[in-house]
């Protein structure tokens, strides 16, 4: 079955065709470890993980590379301000980043290369670019890429050629610079006193790499000079990804990447996230407020990756409740799979399972449409509950197996759900609350609900009775 994706370079949906049959090589731009990533960064990393999971679900052998930028302008500046060595400074944030990925159940990454461990590869690329006259040494001793030497510059970001002709005469040493401002960019930055002890020796001078060359060197080392997919947030499309293409293809003379995938912005209360605006939110901020990391993953899955996601805590509340209800529903299915003794799988259920599997695959394979995939899962769970009285234990077990297959894509931790074991004292509190409700003593009912929740359980009143779930 085909996987359809939206290629940023063509701005069209295309059928994915791998370079090597049955295999996919993917590169994701990872964090710059000068601080803790914010939830907007994690939206990108969650999309990267989900896309890799979808390819694996379709039977592909996936190699997923996500780099760690541990040397650039920001890491050096912040390390010096903290009075720490660059390696010690970045190590603490690398550790926190990897811990956050574990909380979010990101499992698809094959390699996490660090920039500082691949300096020799960067020096080799820069040497090739100098030899090919695609790069030059500036008056400051830094090495710059000449964008005029690369005729296809601007094809990814669809910059107007007129803009390239009029605005591309200058050069910029900073790793990041203004949008829609094509300029020659630094491949190698000559050492200055501000860099302190951070430098490497190269044939073209003492210094350190620029940000853009780092990703070219690491992606080509692990995936080859020509690979399938490059991913990242829409903010990286220009100049970072445009520069990657230019420097990589200038060295190799062949196409760098076949498909470019970019996820849209995450906004906070309708605005872009920025520390100066007081709306900078990390995953740890969310966890400290009592939210589950997987509730945030659930929230991200509910919006298509090419649509902006407006984050509010009210929306996160809804996602947390929705996720808990989903877990509770599946706990009931798991419980019923162990209660009965019949072992015959009905033909009608087998037909329904075949249908729902096709619907799920069609959804996720259409440009990674996880909102539709979730909708298919919800409808399947609703179907299971409607058939409650007609299912055997083996029927419920088979349904749970299908849910686990879907969770291989969704990554919501549904594959390891156990039947809910409610302690006796919680059951007693629930019974007391039901009596209070029957007697219309709502004050006592609310107090008992609060007590139950304090113990880590949620109470939901449904037409079929009280449902208990674990917080």
Structure description:
By secondary structure, the protein is of the alpha/beta class. The protein has three domains: 4-263, 3-Layer(aba) Sandwich (Rossmann fold); 284-416, no CATH class; 424-470. The chain is 46% helix and 15% strand. It has 15 helices and 16 strands. It has helices at 39-57, 73-82, 86-103, 119-131, 161-167, 211-223, 237-252, 283-288, 293-301, 313-336, 347-365, 370-386, 393-410, 424-438, 442-454, and strands at residues 4-7, 12-15, 23-28, 61-66, 135-137, 143-145, 171-172, 184-190, 207-209, 227-233, 257-263, 266-268, 271-272, 309-311, 457-462, 465-470. The strands form five sheets. Strands 5, 6, 7, 8 and 9 form a five-stranded mixed β-sheet that branches. Helix 1 links the parallel strand 3 (23-28) and strand 4. The longest helix has 24 residues, at 313-336. It is elongated and about 85 Å long. The two termini are 39 Å apart. The relative contact order is 0.11.
